[in-house]
Specification:
Layout: H1 10-25, H2 29-63
Length: 69
């Protein structure tokens, strides 16, 4: 299960930090609401995609062909 451990690179960490700081500096309520809505929808979509992927991997494991996928 080591493949499930996320270890971002320094560049990825810095990019994320810059994005977070940009959000913290935002003062426009409408823009913040739009951002929250977009992030909520994206999070839902990614959650569904992850569920499907894990289900597919489990199926391949059952069939004993996970090494081929």
């Amino acid at each position: 299960m080591d493949w499930m451990i996320v270890e971002p690179t320094l560049e990825q960490k810095l990019t994320l930090e810059c994005t977070c700081r940009g959000i913290m500096e935002q003062s426009d309520l409408r823009e913040m609401q739009a951002l929250c809505i977009a992030l909520t929808k994206q999070n839902w979509h990614q959650g569904q995609l992850l569920k499907q992927a894990v289900g597919h991997i489990a199926q391949l494991d059952e069939w004993g062909i996970s090494e081929l996928a």
